[in-house]
Amino acid sequence: MTVQPKTAVEPAVHAPPAEIAARAHADAARYAQMHARSVADPEGFWGEEGRRLDWMRPYTRVKNTSFGPGEVSIRWFEDGTLNVAANCIDRHLKDRAEQTAIIFEPDSPEEPAQHVSYAHLHAEVSRFANVLKALGVAKGDRVVIYLPMIPAAAYAMLACARIGAIHSVVFAGFSPDALADRINDCGARLVITADHAPRGGRTTALKSNCDKALRRCSDRVKLLMVARTGGQVDWLEGRDHAYEAMAAQAPADCPPVEVGAEDPLFILYTSGSTGKPKGVVHTSGGYLLYAAITHHYVFDYRDGDVYWCTADVGWVTGHSYIVYGPLANGATTVMFEGVPTYPDAGRFWQVCEKHRVTQFYTAPTAIRALMGKGAGPVEACDLSSLRILGSVGEPINPEAWNWYDETVGKGRCPIVDTWWQTETGGILIAPLPGATATKPGSATLPFFGVQPVVLDDQGHELDGPAEGVLAIKDSWPGQMRTIWQDHERFAQTYFEMFKGYYFSGDGCRRDADGYYWITGRVDDVINVSGHRMGTAEVESALVAHDKVAEAAVVGCPHPLKGQGIYCYVTLMDGVEPSDALRKELADWVRTEIGPIAKPDAIQWAPGLPKTRSGKIMRRILRKIAENETDALGDTSTLADPAVVEDLIANRVDA
Ligand code: WT7
């Protein structure tokens, strides 16, 4: 049922469809009761929910967390031990050995899909784990995974978990340099890759990217290559190992290693507002429990469902909601190697029809791109299996929300707009399909155990309807524990600015119903197609070019990507600006970081607006990029106000 808004500014409210509410894991009353209990008695609530997992040694201590003052320290279930892979595989063998765990849908629709049963998953992961052991990988060692979206990516992650090694998945779209930085930062002793990665009808030479990256790494780092295409690769004897040859020798049995709940499961690099990407560390017990329980409730997963999250395992969404959450729940999860528009704009819907997908989870940027292709490709497919539609990665604009609801979901499928971050491990704010009335553009209400607050600039909590900065008051089990080898930076980035809170970096508004509306980042991080980019990273790539003297990068509105990358570039003396140079710089950034960082606009800036102390006034640059030049605000502290006139006159469109 849809209640029309009383005024144009209030969006429509969509109550949960009765047939969904009747069978869902939680209805409105249950949500309210469980949320209240989770906050009033976290020890009791999580102590009970922790039993969703199989523990080798049960925990006696549930929560031991402090956001300061004093040391920031986050520990959940700290005296418990378990194995994450055993929780995602072995414990399901009793009841669901023949059930499909993973459906692999290849890039090309011509290539047959693969159905991997839990029994097969067990054999593959065990064999993979034995190959890792044969290469000398032991508990606590770091392994970098640079693979396409193929089942081997999940096998490799779970194989690490099985032997207690720490994986760090690097998105296969990242450049050799970005890969090398991550290998070096986490001190990996092995990188797992494939020969080539097919995607959207093209291929990326992953092995060759690794060869380039490893030139910048210790020569002790080994390489393990999985064959995907069988294409030509260079080979370095001694360093390089072929997975298939080793797997043929490896036993299919590998006992899962006992790890502490607080032993790291993975490191995942993400961009911050300053400096190099941060190695976000997630540990084993709390993370897995939180991924599992959120997957269960937010997607209302039940036996027999076919759940599809279109993310890549290179991002946290792929970790929590393709691999760990679904498999911990004994679910059937789809892994899709391709892109939404290959071979045509109907691909997502064809895959939904083909595999009878029940939950479909994607990003607003994909929805907007497909919306642009009209209803035809959607209507050509039978989408009657769909029950729940999810969104993640950036705020979803109401037009896209409504199209998703009406054209894809035919008004029958609740939309779960899920707000979370790499750092949070799992979903923090989202509707539950049978419990929460939705409003297009709002992530709605907090998940169990989550206490969001809206803070003003001074860090005071605001009551009732309010707008400010989004922070979280107390810990939840899926929270990141530290930045790899930089606990100080962890404390400083997330707990310094607003004492006693986890600072999200996002702005938000809370309405009169207590619903949260995320308004976007308040720091120097931009969100390009749901991917996080630090403006500082793009700036340092630009200034590394020998024709560039200085650069400042901000986000600008972009119709498909949400935000685009807008660069102001000051050239070295004597260098002439030209369109050719623009292209050269855009390509340069693309090779330095990866295709996702390619600038959308480059404006030549003879000077940048600076304060008298030399600080770049990014606020002004953002306004110019947004084309809101009548709202520049106070420019009186500028060292040279004429600079701004020039920038306004020469702004470019993204
Ligand atoms: C940032 C986190 C969480 C997995 C994907 C991205 C933005 C994410 C939403 C949403 C509004 C959202 C935030 C957040 N974001 N989901 N549903 N509504 N904004 O993970 O790369 O760590 O990025 O993405 O700005 O801080 P990430």
From TrEMBL:
Keywords: Acetylation, ATP-binding, Ligase, Magnesium, Metal-binding, Nucleotide-binding
Positions of the Acetyl-coenzyme A synthetase N-terminal domain: 31-88
Enzyme Commission code: 6.2.1.1
Transmembrane segments: none
Domain AMP-binding enzyme C-terminal positions: 537-615
Residues that coordinate or bind CoA: 199-202, 317, 529, 590
UniProt-listed Pfam families: ACAS_N (PF16177), AMP-binding (PF00501), AMP-binding_C (PF13193)
Catalytic activity of the protein: acetate + ATP + CoA = acetyl-CoA + AMP + diphosphate
GO CC terms in record: cytosol
Sequence positions that bind ATP: 393-395, 417-422, 506, 521, 532
Record-level Gene Ontology MF annotations: acetate-CoA ligase activity; AMP binding; ATP binding; metal ion binding
Keyword Isomerase part of the UniProt annotation: no
Biological process (GO), any one: acetyl-CoA biosynthetic process from acetate
Sequence positions bearing N6-acetyllysine: 615
Keyword Nucleotide-binding applies: yes
Binding positions for Mg(2+) per the UniProt entry: 543, 545, 548
Cofactor(s) demanded: Mg(2+)
Job of this protein: Catalyzes the conversion of acetate into acetyl-CoA (AcCoA), an essential intermediate at the junction of anabolic and catabolic pathways. AcsA undergoes a two-step reaction. In the first half reaction, AcsA combines acetate with ATP to form acetyl-adenylate (AcAMP) intermediate. In the second half reaction, it can then transfer the acetyl group from AcAMP to the sulfhydryl group of CoA, forming the product AcCoA.
Name recorded for this polypeptide: Acetyl-coenzyme A synthetase
Organism of origin: Albimonas pacifica
Native organism taxonomy: Bacteria, Pseudomonadati, Pseudomonadota, Alphaproteobacteria, Rhodobacterales
Gene: acsA
